[in-house]
Amino acid sequence: MTPAALKHLAEVDPLMGALIKEIGPCLLEPERRRSPFQSLVQAVAHQQLHGTAATNILNRFRKLFPGRRFPRAEDLAGVTDAQMRACGFSFAKIRAIRDIAEKTLSGVIPSSRNIMKLTDEEIIERLTAVRGVGRWTVEMLLIFQLGRENVLPVDDFGVRSGFQAAYKKRSMPKPKALRKFGKRWHPHATTAAWYLWRAADAAKEKK
């Protein structure tokens, strides 16, 4: 993220400025090479699972498609639910992944090129129509794939606990309260969220 973003955040919020000074430069680097299809499949794989377990499942899933770094939506027609179940996906996640593939092929989920033309809210509206995909999942795509600069995932546990730690609150803020407070960070809310994640990590290490 740009020095201008850090300067803006420090000016509008001295406590955020202190956090930036303590942590140092923002190291957020979006993975722009991933397609929306890949991002959503990976997000579904990680739902309610430890990162290592989800990575192992995805590695087994990739092996079903030799010669590909990651399968395309049309490739899923060549594998059975039983094969996907053997990778470690639950039946609910298999249904979600099938729906992601179907809506990619029908155009509900945009291509990598077309998604760049849509606003954040347009992307959220389109993608939350997919089975198993909620607002938080789309916000992670906006941040970590598309590099959108003004996303504040107020339902994210790490963001909320980071706010509690950095702002020395007795309890985590409610999403509505955090959204209201976070308006001062616009148009650089994504950078603020990254620093709140780092604050949550630091608080964990202290414990």
Write structural notes for this entry.
With 207 residues, the chain is an all-alpha fold. It is 59% helix and 0% strand. It has helices at residues 3-12, 14-23, 36-46, 51-62, 81-87, 91-106, 112-115, 120-127, 135-144, 157-166, 175-181, 189-206. Helix 3 packs across helix 9 (135-144). The radius of gyration is 18 Å and the shape is elongated. The relative contact order is 0.15.
Helix percentage range: 55-70%
The chain-level structural class is mainly alpha
Largest sheet: none
SSE string, helices as H and strands as E = HHHHHHHHHHHH
Mean pLDDT: 94
Low-confidence stretches: none
What's the quaternary structure here?
single chain
Number of strands: 0
Whole-number radius of gyration?
Answer: 18 Å
Number of helices: 12
Strand fraction band? under 5%
First-to-last CA distance: 29 Å
> What would you call the shape?
elongated
Write the layout of secondary structure elements.
Elements: H1 3-12, H2 14-23, H3 36-46, H4 51-62, H5 81-87, H6 91-106, H7 112-115, H8 120-127, H9 135-144, H10 157-166, H11 175-181, H12 189-206
Helix pairs in contact: 1-2, 2-12, 3-6, 3-9, 8-9, 10-12
